[in-house]
Amino acid sequence: MVGRKQADLARAVGISPSYLNLIEHNRRRIGGKLINDIARELGVDAAALTEGAEAELLNTLREAAADHERAAEDLPRLEEFVGRFPGWARLLSDTRRRAVELEHSVEVLSDRMTHDPFLSTSLHEVISTVTAIRSTATILAETRDIDPEWRDRFHRNMAEESARLAESAEALVRYLDDASATDIAGSTPQEELDGWLRGRGFHIAELERSLALEPETLVNRSTELQSAAAREMGQKFLERYRKDAEHMPLKSFAEAATATGFDPAALSVRFGVDLTAVFRRLATLPTELVGAEIGLVTCDGSGTLTFRKPVEGFPLPRYSAACPLWPLYQALSRPMAPVRRRVEIGGRNPRGFVAYAVCQPAQPAGFDGPQVLEAAMLILPLEIVGAEILEPPQEVGTSCRICPRAVCAARREPSIMSEAF
Amino acid sequence: MGKRVLLVEDEPNIIEAIRFILSRDGWVVDTHSDGASAVEAVLANPPDVLVLDVMLPGKSGFDILKELRGVPATGTLPVLMLTAKGQGRDRELAERYGVNRFMTKPFANAEVLEAVNALLEGATGAA
Predict the structure, then answer these.
(1) pLDDT in tens, A38-47
(2) Under CATH, which number does the domain A6-111 receive?
(3) Total beta-carbon pairs less than 8 A apart between chain A and chain B
(4) CB interface of B with A, residues 16-55, below 8 Å
(5) Chain B: residue nearest A155 by CA?
(6) How far is B105 from chain A (nearest CA, A)?
(7) Distance in angstroms between the alpha carbons of the first and the last residue of chain B
(8) Residue A248 CB contacts under 8 Å (≥ 6 apart), including other chains
(9) Fold topology of A275-420
(10) pLDDT tens digits for range B55-112
(11) Are B48 and B4 in contact (CB under 8 A)?
(12) Which of A25, A123, A359, B73 sits in a 20 to 30 Å window from B49, CA-based?
């Protein structure tokens, strides 16, 4: 599509630029009217457009066959197969492509676990310390005639190593807790998007101006959003951001937020928008404008986290499932019933927060289609909240694997902290 | 002169514990903490058994072992390798370079003692 902007072409044929992007990269099949429209706009024969897709399909199937002995025998009949069963051929090709993508993701994650230098050094430190403690403790326990001078020395060593172990373990847990500790770009589309947003502080200044940039322009300029899926997700995020910015202009919204003590309900009434939109807007305000970090996490009906903006003292799990005691999940179980809870994250220096959560159902496929749920939880540091909340805090964690609370009614699996440390 | 072991390890409290265990069994225990100069230390006064850590400052235990195996004087020196890196490929690497025993941390004291004694018996038995 040299010489012609993708956005212009998309507009001319009545589809979104992101959808056109998927078509261009052979991630969406098209045919009939749409392919004729695109061909007309580009001034080429429709067959010329399908040739590229066909060649790409044949190529993918050849690659798949190369890894499979029986299929390789049938290679001479590949074109006949694609011609007679185009749907099956496409299914096979898409499945092969997906398998390759998944293998790549597994490799990236596995590589990270194996070669992450901080993780490797920390674990080495923990194991060395445990070794010294174990050896020394065994000597003290099993040597009856130990010289008092040696005994005192070993007691000192034990105390030293125990302190070192505690420090190493704390550093390790801090690292695992901290969602922003490492660069995670390069694996799943969600991670690409998270990394991009984190790099921008979750605030998109270009969409706040009266002559805001097009979301597509921002996506195209981004070097972090590499996969087509991440670009599509980024586009959706930015389109919603732009609408939020139009309904809640930055300056007046920031002033109102401060004046109301960050009360989402009051802001919802004042700007005539729903609570979830207020949550999103609060979480994307620049920190310097409101003097505090505000966190946000959203999930879909399955409980899968779909957006994460952590706040210091309230880390969000990157890979594992989150704490089931979060007000987010209370809200998910009761759509349209807002929840406000004072919460406290465990640890040596627990910090207090106020969590506002709400779940809103949508019917994107009409009244007869499935109901789609989205729940959101706003995380506000206790000290910036205007309302006086007298209720005792609800103790919550990040995820079961790294939660230090020994007694928890909702525990799903044992913690590595209670087991290892 | 008694049986002599050289322990190349950089964790002082592990050194102290191993020194205590082996000394009580009649071993003369020398220690060395720097990886970079470990080969010279071994060659200057070859021990009966070498206990070698993998993660050392200056030079890794694998590199030290490889160099020692290239020198006739230490080509068959019994070596016990101690490591917190217990993955299969580390063991393979150690074996490729000619390690005699490979032990992962955290180890039991009795295991270290048994391994060092077995290495000496193997060496003297083979001689």
Answers:
(1) 888 887 777 6
(2) 1.10.260
(3) 54
(4) 16-18, 20-21, 24, 55
(5) B13
(6) 6
(7) 18
(8) A267, A271, A273, A277, A278, A281
(9) Beta-Lactamase (3.30.450)
(10) 888 888 999 999 999 999 999 999 999 987 666 778 888 999 999 999 988 999 999 9
(11) yes
(12) A123
| pLDDT tens digits, one per residue of A123-140 | 888 888 999 999 999 999
Is residue A316 within 8 Å of A307, Cβ to Cβ? no
- 3 state DSSP class of B32: strand
CB contact under 8 A, A134 and B13: no
Q: What's phi and psi for A373, nearest 5 deg?
A: -105, 145
- Could you tell me the CA-to-CA distances from A270 to A278, A354, A366, A387, B37 in Å, in that order? 10, 21, 29, 17, 73
CB A295 within 8 A of CB A373: no
Tokens representing residue A214 in the block: 């097009």
Cβ(A261)–Cβ(A250) below 8 Å: no
Residue A296's SS3 state is: strand
Tokens of A221: 């300029």
Task: With beta carbons under 8 A apart, name residues in chain A contacting B107.
Answer: 131, 134-135
Instruction: Provide DSSP, A343-379.
Output: EEE-SSS-EEEEEEEEEEEE-TT-TTS--EEEEEEEE
pLDDT in tens, A277-331: 999 999 999 988 888 889 999 999 999 888 989 888 887 876 667 899 999 999 9
- The answer to whether the bond into B106 is cis (omega within 30° of 0) is yes
SS3 A9: helix
Strands A394-396 and A295-300: unpaired
Q: Could you say which residues from 61 to 100 on chain B have a Cβ atom under 8 Å away from some Cβ of chain A?
A: 84-85
- Structural domains of chain B, with CATH: 4-126 (3.40.50.2300)
Residues of chain A above pLDDT 90, percent: 33
- Mapped to the 3 state alphabet, what secondary structure does A140-180 carry? HHHCCCCCHHHHHHHHHHHHHHHHHHHHHHHHHHHHHHCCC
